[in-house]
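Lay summary. Proteins are chains of building blocks that fold into shapes, and those shapes determine what they do. In this project we predict the shape from the chain. Here is one chain we studied, written as its sequence of building blocks.
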Amino acid sequence: MPDERFEDHLRHPRGRGRVVAGAHHGAAGGAACGDLVRLSVAVEGDRVRAAGFEASGCGATIAAASAAVELAEGTGLIEAARIGAPLIAAQLGGLSAGKLHAADLASDALHRALGAAARADGRLRARPGRTLVAMSGGVDSAVAAVLSARDPQAEVVAVTLELWADPENDGERSCCSAAAVRGARRVAHGLGLAHFTLDLREEFRAGVVEPWLIDHALGQTPNPCVRCNGHVRLDAMLDFAERLGAPTLTTGHYARRTERGLLRLAADPAKDQTYMLAALSRPALARLRFPLGDLCKPEVRALAREAGLDVAGRPDSQDLCFLAGTGRANFLARHGGMRRRPGDILDRSGAVVGRHEGHHGFTVGQRKGLGVFAGHALYVLATDARANTVTVGPRAQLATRTVRVRGLRLHGEPDAVRLRYRSPAVGCRLEGDEIHLSEAFDGAAPGQTAVFLAGDAIVGCATIAA
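And here is the predicted shape, written in a compact code that computers can read:
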């Protein structure tokens, strides 16, 4: 029999149909489940000034949305960010297993609205011990939150970004999908942390995905993670941290900082992620904290198990977040219009040695998938977008000791450079827009990032030019 609190919210829903001035909105559900919640939240300074909702579907959905409004309205911003599906269900006297979905929908809608409102209108007084932790739903960011919370002077608040939504993606394998956001919120609330959701899908498409598509059309091999960390994702979270009065942003990246405030290689070279962070500005780096920088992955998983986190054994994501569950070729065709476009595969002399399905499917240094048999291994030496050709040759023809770059940003004098994410550093001398290498490098791909080092410090980056 339904609890009387459930019946009360169903018969007298709080805030249903209310038009909230200056509100921001969040929606969850849809045609697939038949239930839809649209929740509105207005934030003023450090409090939720007003809230309201519209809902369609089953009675549990209406009651859950009403409970979410009752819990959030008039509370402090940080307190509102602690409201999740379990608290909404408890406000209704508990929900049966078949109705818990309604609490999830109400929670999703509330947090989308709350994040948008806090990002636009929130303003909390700065507190020295407060830090905003970027949580992806994986083990690294969860342990970063755990380690931050161990400081008795710290106040930890969590945030997760929703960056991409595509029905072709596997939400469980993506670190930025709606499913990942819900998982990260569950972990954060389980640790007793307030959790915010920021919808950056428009900024991510404009600042990361669209340039990635354009670069592929031009025959280049872009690195979207460098662009995302350097110009979209971390900048947005640093701005949000300031809104919440948090002087610092903590992430689960394997990286460190030097005493001079430069990015420094992680202690575990197998997990080092400084390459992906190389485009960060000095002011941004000054506010970032990397508690995993001195740890190796087994130590992180052990800490997660010690803390009772069910993400302790979760596999690391291996693909670009917006490609999770779909292939690069399908994504380029669907979102960039780069479909099958047959062309010639050439050798260095210009002789035709095979055919391909489109230059955008190849990158300099690639060996697999060429479909050309020559009695010895062949590698992609170059692609030509205008002519739609791919030039191949033996590995020896990939070798170069001079690499041109563009968009150079330096914080110091380099003595080495990394020309791919997993490649070792090579000694170098920089002259203008040319890198002179101390030894030959195989396959410097146009569009990839060149990351400059001085010892174990990152002192700059640039984009490899054609």
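What the prediction tells us: The chain has a mean pLDDT of 92.
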